[in-house]
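S., here's the first fold you wanted:
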Amino acid sequence: MVTNSDYAAEPAPADELAAPLDLLLTGSAVGIGRRMLPNNSWSRLAVHLARRPRVVGGRVLALRHELTDIARGRSERAPAKADKRFADPAWQSNPILKRSMQAYLAASDTAEELLTDAHLDWKDEQWIRFVIDNVLEGVSPSNNPLLNPLGWKALVDTGGASAVRGLRRFVGDMARAPRVPAMVEPNAFTVGENVAVTPGSVVLRTEVFELIQYTPQTPRVHTVPLLVVPPVINKYYIMDIAPHRSMIEYFLSQGQQVFAISWRNPSAAQRDWGFDTYGQAIIDALGAVETITGSERTHLQASCSGGILAAMTAAHLTEIGQDHRLAGLTLMVTVLDQARAGFAAAAIDEDTAKTAIAVSQRRGYLDGRALAEVFAWLRPTDLVWRYWVNNYLQGRAPAPFDVLFWNADTTRMTAALHRDMVLMGVHNSLTVPGGVHMLGTPVDLSRVTVDTYVVAGLADHISPWQACYRSARLLGSKDCRFVLSTSGHIAALVNPPGNPKAAYRVGAPDDADPAAWVDNAAQQSDSWWPDYAQWLAERSGPERDAPATLGAPDLPAQDPAPGTYVHTH
């Protein structure tokens, strides 16, 4: 069972320990290694600690005493139950391995305690914590090929072949971006064969996107359709990842007419596509959906960076008096208010933004592989060192996992859109009415009054749930439903019913304090998908017979789903 403590806000001084879009986009352009270099935050750390010599001396003395106990075999220090790095019995039975593990854990705790003792302001604390976390993760004895028992066992079991395979994998991974251990084999899945397999057809192709209409799975369907707007920094098929785990498939089974945008993977030739290009693309897709279904209203569902564009487009439609075309707005793991979101907000400044923009402008795009590297180093234990041990020390292929295959199937972002996104994030423009424009009109999210459904993930390290909550409160909707899933960034989306461990809280985001909202929001078990399906149904009009064919006379069915743009690398 999930309790209130599971939803508790992170400790002060930072509001969230995750990364909004501006960090991901600047870090991808200038390199995550820059975050590891010494700067003024380190000087201030030294000054703050120098002012507390007794505290520092006490910590050092306590560490010395514990290291002495460890050397004598008297220490009871053990890893946390959730720490899988030291799960092999040899870490407990072998005296050398046990002592190295205990010494590492003791030193790590001391480093964390000294950082807390320094009482830095939240920006400095977040910058230093990012560096310390990555350094401590990197020097873990579990990553050392001379110490990790899993590597030695593989070496013996394979007669040395594991070392050859591991070295080959290491050389291959380091020879090409993103230069982190591969999380999945590139041929583990095939798009259109075992991922993105829900039947449908492309009914509109422009130079910016393909619009896919999916084949109805019920004899009768709701009259008001659903248009899915995916992120622009990943391919769309996370919404159709696999049978029985596909969000698109599930909503078709609930009688929805589902359409999805599949963005073109741009090259340098499309360097000038910015906010307006993508906003107009959403409006063009909306018009095509209206033509095909005959409905005057459409549900707009969007996620992550696609949610930012969808919210801005909704504000534009409101400004020109066409918000009646929207039956509802759904934003999933979308951050519109990026203020003080942990390390990200601490690490971004005008100079960094300008440098990042200049880099992508020279290339014409932001390379998605660089973005994948940033994602990985934000969670080094799970996304880097786990595969370091598996791929290199044990010489094994990573296990096939469709979500990681999708994650590795990267896309590029145009230079203009990169510029627009970075500047918007640095200035937090969406929190200020008129702070940014879409298609020539000022964006004022408080004027967006359409019914809204907002989803966030409790364990999301990309879109902090507190920031998603604040973002929901920016909208002017009088009927807003906020859902907090117990999952992370992707698992919050790929969240089919039937998971006994899943749960979510739901309610209107009326309280200004996210933590207070958690205390009062109703908790539900299982997936939020059925709740959303009911919310959609209540706003999707009467049912009618499902269409016998896809498309319309002026928009005939073309290539079968998942279309052609999704195959461009």
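And the second, which I think is the more interesting of the pair:
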Amino acid sequence: MKQWWQQSVFYQIYPRSFQDSNQDGIGDIKGITARLPYLETLGIDAIWLSPVFTSPNVDNGYDVSDYCGIMPEFGTMADMEELIAAAKKVGIKIIMDLVVNHTSNEHPWFKKALAGDDYYKNYYIFRSDKNGLPNDLSSFFGGSAWEKLPTTDEYYFHLFAKEQPDLNWENPAVRKEVWQIMNFWLKKGVGGFRLDVIELIGKIPDQKIIGDGPNLHPYLQEMYQEVLAGQDVVTIGETGSVTPLTAPLYTDPKRKELAMVFQFQHMALDEVAKTSKWNLKALDIAELKTVLSQWQTDLPPEAWNSLFWSNHDQPRILSRWGNVRDYPTESSKMLAILLHMMRGTPFIYQGEELGMTNQYVDDISQLDDIESIHYYEAEKAKGTSDDAIWRAINAKGRDNARTPMQWNSSQNAGFTREDVTPWYNINPNHVTINAENRLQNPESIFYTYQQLIQLRKDYPLIVWGDYHLLDTDENIFAYTRSYEEETWLICANFSSQNQTISQPYTAEKTIIANYAHDYDKLDSLTLLPYETFVVQVK
């Protein structure tokens, strides 16, 4: 059965950085509502909204203290209800970012646990050990995953910051609380959930099992039965270790778990294998072709994947794998066309459609992200050079994605009033890279994204077609999509050098391209830097 989310394009909003409506320097819910006409013009179908729940903001909202409340900085529940209703009127669904692997240490459940309430203590993972740490598991943010209570021999478990204690999903009462939270938001009219680090909920810390624990899939099946059955909503599981072979365990409809997965295999290709995200290497285009193609060909048709280059945890894709200095327009269009012609549900991260880039930093005072701050402090303690530390942070730090949205060329980029200090640095290049400029230029990257979104609505081939990777030189990424009697050739020069291709097809019409060239002669064609085209062939 074909689902709406298989034929949709999603747009992720990081609320703190999208639009400030009350001039306090912080993006908010009313700001999102005010910008719905812009998103309607772009053509997207759903908004993935990063957390707006009540939170102390240790990890920018991914530490929740009240799942049924709205962070005052972002507005009120009335504002949220208005956004859901206004978005619905223009055909846009709101997808909540649900963080239920852990809570904030300010959540009432955890406060009661610390006060000695055994009922709520079992909501979390506590261990007693007079000899020291229960084991050597590490937090993803650095240091031990066990935090000692100051007055006892007890420790609690946290895979992220110590202010983010992990929930004990083995406790049925915890799962029931989560089902109630989900039902609360479904009654508000949301279109589904993005489930943060959901593969971690089956963890067994005592056995050092973190991801993909033995009870993970039974928990997700219980979620489906208790909450999702009969609901026309989407569930998107963030699953860092999933592969094309294991993804059907999550997304095969017969298993009644999730709608689609977020996988990160392609996002680790510029990292030294099995080390840290901060240990960098150059992107190998051949590896990228292999990984993306495996997700196209090895994933069974009944399973479903997401397509993305960027999100709130990743650096800007144009800075990462494009060419900001010499070919910003051409390379950003190349990346967009290459990905959006694949099978799966595309996700655009705010500003990606404008060609927003990373922002260079060189002082710890310029950092906001807790992960980058922990990395900086740990590397300084090791004696790592400043150059090496900043090279890694500028390449992979999460703050890169969190600079405020660039709406125009004014002092604060239209994000907030000019006499207000924004919560985080505005990228200086907003003077030229901004929505106002892009909308005025019919050849801009914005209109490429708009066209790609419309093409997905118009052509079933993009959604359902077969995929075949073509054998080409390393820097050429070429594949075909075929559906019923129609075949398209997608060809991208993933380099700053001219490349020659030869393909045994006859072009019938051009679907989209980032250069105004004639593609009649595919048997001998020289592609300019980052040149990318899609043609219907026979």
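Why I say that: The longest strand covers residues 476-483. The chain has a mean pLDDT of 96.

Talk tomorrow,
H.
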